[in-house]
Amino acid sequence: MSSTITGKNLLRPNSLQCTNLQEYLKSRSPDTLNKLYHKPPICLAVFCELPVIAKHYVMRLLFVEQPVPQAVIASWCSKLYFEEHQKVVQVLNELYVWKEASIPGGLPGWTLSSTFKKNLKIVLLGGGKPWTMSNQLETDSKPRDVAFLDSYALERWECVLHYMVGSQQQEGISADAVRILLHAGLMKRDEADGSPIITQAGFQFLLLDTASQVWYFILQYLDTIEARGLDLVECLTFLFQLNFSTLGKDYSTEGMSEGLLTFLQHLREFGLVYQRKRKAGRFYPTRLALNIATGETKPLTRDTDKEGYIIVETNYRVYAYTNSNLQVALLGLFCEMLYRFPNVVVSILTRDSVRQALKSGITASQIVGYLRQHAHSKMIEAGPPILPPTIVDQIKLWENERNRFLFSEGVLYSQFLSQTDFEVLRDHAVSTGVLIWQSERKRTMVVTKTGHDDVKKFWKRYSKGSS
């Protein structure tokens, strides 16, 4: 008599979740976190990303060798910020940075995790073993400057993006990188010929800034790292060592394990490090690696310094002064192409082109953000606002057209034997506040998924009593 129905994701696809370092570590098991906290670079990365109040608590407890009463720690923060204090307590608990400990007399207290405390002291005060890549090197005969490393990193990363949009201007990427794109759900196998094609999540991914794209991609890579026979703790430690390295400085590969050298080659392909040859004894971290620990939307210097190329007019025409196939392909995600010349592309924002982008999972704010981020210098000089308000409002209105309906999961009840049975069950659903919709003529009703069990039990009692 009942069946579950759902309206989820009919018009609103799930947004791409780009978690930060904290969220990633919270998803790891306590044993894994304990192994990670044996590595000073990871302790430093975790400490750097803690909320300000949490850093304050950690520093106060760092040199205290006994548990401190929870009431005392709470007094370190003004009562006006009690909610922030509660959130900080939750973060430190979930990351296993501290743990509860009893104090003589029965008072509850907190003490820092011994492993985290020991290794954070090492990284702040000095000591411990030298980092893997800290061996001394002879001066490089062909040193690479920051400008070269930035150009190399973006060039390597854009190869991945070219592959996703199916652009003709691309170097092939490795089968390993393709497997990661498939694992991440950014691409899927075409049912017809089995070739990789972009997904809804992939469309959203393309409109993220470079730093967020790289962080998301690396998270997906880490999910598959143990299946490759690599050590997660070793690779994460190296990743965070890169995060604290110096841009433009070369580092040694001497003493690295085979697994770490394999990991280095994967990072080299994605543009996180530059290495002249596979067996070269040195490598240079790029700016992509220096952003990696935050997992936040911190744009690269080249992202912010490079000249914008998009002009948007009030008649919905979009001019892109570029000869990059990748940039043209990205614009084509939400614009209808009209003309293409050697150094400029003319396109137009239409209801159909924007709605097609919305169906692919791209949001109005992402479209507006992309146009604003890559706006031509002439538009920036004429602003604010950078984009014509009418264009911004219309894109949002086109999105709202698709969001006029609210969908909720529910359970359908139908095929009642009599009108009385229908009315009794409907009235019970109304009285408990779980009725979503009903049709008296069709003897059909829908109740919320959470209220289904209660309605089902009531129906069984009613059926037994009336039989």
On the 0-100 scale, what is the average pLDDT?
Answer: 82
- The beta-strand count equals 16
Number of helices: 22
Walk across the major sheet and give the strand order. Answer: 1-14-16-15
Envelope shape: globular
- Kindly report how far apart the N and C termini lie: 17 Å
Query: Which parts are unreliable, with pLDDT below 50 for 5 consecutive residues or more?
Result: 2-13, 295-299, 301-305
Radius of gyration: 28 Å
How much of the polypeptide forms β-strand, as a percent range? Answer: 5-15%
The proportion of residues forming helix, as a percent range, comes to: 40-55%
Structural class: alpha+beta
Overall tally of structural domains: 4
Report the sheet with the most strands, covering strand number, pairing sense and barrel closure.
4 strands, antiparallel
Descriptive account of the structure:
This protein is of the alpha+beta class and 467 residues long. It has four domains: 21-125, Arc Repressor Mutant, subunit A (Orthogonal Bundle), CATH 1.10.10; 146-290, no CATH class; 307-402, no CATH class; 410-466, 2-Layer Sandwich (Alpha-Beta Plaits), CATH 3.30.70.2610. It contains 22 helices and 16 strands. The chain has helices spanning 21-26, 30-36, 40-48, 52-61, 70-75, 82-94, 114-125, 146-165, 175-183, 200-206, 210-223, 232-243, 258-270, 287-290, 301-305, 325-331, 351-359, 364-373, 377-382, 389-402, 419-431, 452-466, and strands at residues 2-5, 68-69, 98-103, 107-112, 187-189, 196-198, 251-252, 273-274, 282-285, 310-312, 317-320, 336-340, 345-348, 410-413, 435-439, 444-448. Strands 1-14-16-15 form a four-stranded antiparallel β-sheet, covered by helices on one side. A hairpin with a 3-residue loop joins strand 3 (98-103) and strand 4 (107-112). Helix 18 (364-373) runs antiparallel to helix 20 (389-402). The protein is globular.
